[in-house]
Amino acid sequence: MRIAFIGDLQYWKAEIENLEYKMRQVSMHKPDLAIVMGDFGGSKMRSVEGLEETKHHVDLIGCPRQAIMGNHDVEYNSEYMYDYDPVSTFREVFGKEPYSATVVDGVLILCVTIERQPLEGLRTIHAVYVSDRQYEWAREQLKKHEGMPTLLVTHAHMAGAGIRCDRPLHTSATDTYLEQTFKPERWQALTKEFPQIKAWCSAHLHMGHDYDTAITYREGVMHISCGVMTCCTRDESCNTRFVDINNGKLTVYTLDHNNDKKLIEDAVLDLNENTPPEGRYYIPQKGEILVGEDDAPTAVYRHPYLDRYYVATQKDFLWEYDGGLWDFTGTIAYERKVKSLSAESDRLYIEFADGEIRSVDPHSRKRWQYTDHINQEYIPESELKGDIMKTVPFSTFSKKEGIYVKFI
Ligand SMILES: [Fe+2]
């Protein structure tokens, strides 16, 4: 069984992208199934025509297909307000639901779609949201297929998977990983509740496969990031991911669209053993995270009560790191120099270098600075209150992905 993962099909015009040619390149490697990872439709995104165009191109591969939706397929858009219904349009074009559970060669392929976030409490259009209903549906499928090796497929990866990304873009938009600002922790919990989840494919980041952290392995799960074949690439790569499932082994490949003759083998996982894969991948650690391609940490503060850290950078971002998630949760200060931080049990205080002091609710979705839409909700303060946060020692190291900070 060979699966081709068609990463975000965002483009300007299909003919300029030469999508027919690129689909033939995929077809040449004879996939048995194509999974379209969401964010599709090119310039006609969020329309029947856009979805029809996607379907037309993917069908050129000549194998069955399954599609899930991404954040852009469901986002609220001020141009046509909120009258576009993503699910009914998806059903109309693809004739099925945007989520599925299929057993192939003794492996459960569990495809979970992104859904539209509730309008109530909307902070930003950028969201990678999944409803409680679909989360419970996924749990039911895992229970129904108890013990069966499972490949989970979602548009965005799990928090703490350590997958490389465009850091300032996604962290500021708070849409880096699945359910960021909603319930990201429950996806880690799912992998622990169901150790049968052996591998997890995701897209959304528009980056190539030639990084150690394009594939990671955390606590028994191999996280596989899927690149893109169009101009939406963020690093000029043009890669499509292939996965073979044969005789209890899962083999991950890269198709480089600029050199399409042979698939490049990236890593192999034994689905029946609890052993790490063989090949090129990275094992993420708690307290270690990518800061950016051209940004570096200047200080790391530790919260006195919560398992949280705040990473200040040269470009004057202040990012909140959650010790449970092993990931950034959002941006407390956006391109604004912070002088010091303090905390009480129910408030976080920020003193900026220009003298302004404000406090935010450390448990609210309103504490972050989003890159658009609704501003941070804060209270102006005259002084820092509670415990002044201490900085902790940190080190840095560089990879092709950028500069990492390590503080635990
Ligand atoms: Fe996306």
Topology:
Layout: E1 2-6, H1 14-17, H2 19-28, E2 33-36, H3 48-59, E3 65-67, H4 71-74, H5 86-94, E4 100-104, E5 107-111, H6 132-144, E6 150-153, H7 167-173, H8 185-193, E7 197-202, E8 215-218, E9 221-225, E10 239-246, E11 249-256, E12 259-270, E13 278-279, E14 288-292, E15 297-302, E16 308-313, E17 318-322, E18 327-333, E19 338-344, E20 347-352, E21 357-360, E22 379-381, E23 387-388, E24 390-391, E25 395-399, E26 402-406
The site of fe (ii) ion has 7 residues, from α4.
What would you say this structure looks like, in words?
- A hairpin with a 2-residue loop joins strand 4 and strand 5.
- Strands 3-2-1-10-11-12-13 form a 7-stranded mixed sheet, with no helix packed on it. Strands 4-5-6-7-9-8 form a 6-stranded mixed sheet, covered by helices on one side. Strands 18-17-16-15-24 form a 5-stranded antiparallel sheet.
- The mean pLDDT is 95.
- It folds into 2 domains: 2-279, Metallo-dependent phosphatases (Purple Acid Phosphatase, chain A, domain 2); 288-406, no CATH class.
- The chain has helices spanning 14-17, 19-28, 48-59, 71-74, 86-94, 132-144, 167-173, 185-193, and strands spanning 2-6, 33-36, 65-67, 100-104, 107-111, 150-153, 197-202, 215-218, 221-225, 239-246, 249-256, 259-270, 278-279, 288-292, 297-302, 308-313, 318-322, 327-333, 338-344, 347-352, 357-360, 379-381, 387-388, 390-391, 395-399, 402-406.
- By secondary structure, it is α+β, with helices and mostly antiparallel strands.
- It is built from 8 helices and 26 strands.
- Helix 3 runs parallel beside helix 5 (86-94).
- Fe (ii) ion is lined by residues 8, 39, 70-72, 155, 204.
